[in-house]
Each structure stands twice: as C-alpha cells, then as structure tokens.
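User: Before I run my own analysis I want an independent prediction to cross-check against. Here's the chain; please return only the structure tokens and, at the end, one sentence I can use as a sanity check.
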Amino acid sequence: MRPLLALILVWLLAATASGQPAPLAAAQRTIAEAVPDGRAGTVDRAYVVSNEWAHRLFFSHLSGLGGAIVAVGADQVYTMAAVAGADLIWAIDYDPTIAAVHRMYGALIAGAASPDALLARFEPGAEEASAEQIGAHYEGARRDAAVRVYRRHRARLAVYLRRLHRYRQGRTWLNDDALYAHVRALHRGGRVIARTGDIGGSTTLSAIGAASRQMGIPVRIVYLSNAEMFVPNRPQLVSNMRGLPTDERSVLLRTVFSPRLTSAPRDHWHYVVQPFPDYLARLGTGNYLHANTIVEDLIRAHRGGSGASVIDGSIPMRR
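Assistant: Structure tokens:
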C-alpha cells in the first residue's frame, strides 16, 4: 500500500472511531468545490473577528442537528457547527476577505492538533513558518489572499483567539477540546467550503442549495448574523432561501440590535432563533419586505426581554 494511501486510511479510521466526520468522498468534494463565487462587495471594515459573544444562547436549539450550516461571517460559525455536530460548513460572505480567513484557518488548523497549537501559529516568531504552511495549501489567487490576510491580521487575530480560548461564559471552538476536534475534522476533511457571495444574489446561495441537495446533506442551520439589516427580502433572496434543502428541524439564526430588545449579557446583540418553516411561511405572505419587519413581530408580542428569543408559530404574523 502506498504511504499516502495508508495515511488517508488511518485518518478515515480514526475519524470514524472518534465520531468525527470523515473526509468528503471524492464525488461529493467535486460537487462542493464546483459552487462558484458570486458578487463581492466593498466594505469599510473587514470583520475578520466576531463582535458577537453570546452564541451559547443558540446552543439548546442546535445540539444534535447535524446536516449542513450555511453561514456568513468568520470563525463564529465554527462554534455553532461543532455544537450542532454539523457535517458541512458553507461559509458565504459579501466581503472576499472572509473567504480568505476561512482558508487561512483551514491550512493552520490542519497542522494544529490542539487549540494551544493553533494559538502558537499566531505568535510573532511563527509568522514566516505559518505563512509558508498556508501557502502550501493553495494555489494562485486563493493562496495569495490567504497568506495576505494572515500577515495583515495576525496580531489582531492573536489577541482575539486568546480571548476566545480564555472565554468562560460559554463553550467556544477554542476553549473546548471536543468542539475544536470537530472543527478540525471538518477542515481536514474538505467540509468547509468558503465562497464570496451575496445572500440576496443570484449565484452562490442558489448553487449551495443545489449542491447540498445533490450531496444528500440537508441544511439544518442558516446563520445570518445581522446581514439582514442590509439585505431586503427581495424575490431573489426568498427564492434562494426556498431553494435550500431544509426540513422541519432546520433553524434560522440571527442577531439584531434594537433599543426595544434586551441585549445579551456582556454583549451588544439580541439573539433570535426561528424555525425555518416559520421563516419561509412569513416570507411567503409578502408582508415582510425587510428582516426588521420579522423582528417587529417579536416586539409586538412583548417578547425579547432575556437577551434571546424564539420567533415561531406562537407569535402572530403580520397581516
């Protein structure tokens, strides 16, 4: 048996024994990698680190969901995906820097067996070796972008990741060895697909829906952070969401800021969970032209006093 084939076999057996997702089969990986980038945007600030710190408020709604997660933003998706036991991460963001951030993490996490080992890759003395490691994983523009984002943001990421590692208000992918192991298995197995695209555009999200369906992996989580604040519920966005292979277990997660909603402790945001069938039903009425109008249902029902809320059938729809 060839040495590389033997190593892959050992990895597959180890992943299966540990309960972690094994690498994508070649046919599935071909399908996933064929999803194209879409429209990119120019942003005033690249959010290479999250400004949300209370994702623990989602956990009770995520445990055991499995399937795929479609998410905007940077590493915060890793915590939610690991808690859910997700099989696949579709990372999509309007800012092309974010796709480069995910590829940077993928290269470094592959060689870091523990959170401490990953943190060490962001120390000043490790910069050249880490940049070389990232560069070895990719080719062309993707290689250049991933190395560039590492060099440009290394010091900032080092501070942020240490804070995430020390965080004591809830589990994160860097303060919990089991969550880190799941994230590492996803990256090493080709199960983190990062693309630049607009959730309201006509290309990437619709392709993600088609690919997930072809791969036989249901989309169980859609995490929009606060992106809905900037993207109206136009027909294309509604079509994109309807095109995802969701089911009765799927949920939509969002963060919102409103003076009429209580922010989570030590956080700026209010955290909202919505069963995906309820989300699609509200969109289907034609009465929700913007995400804020969905949140208005929550406010009118006098919910939202604890930092986190659920919008479901118990909250009347807009008529």
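Sanity check: The chain is about 45% helix and 10% strand.
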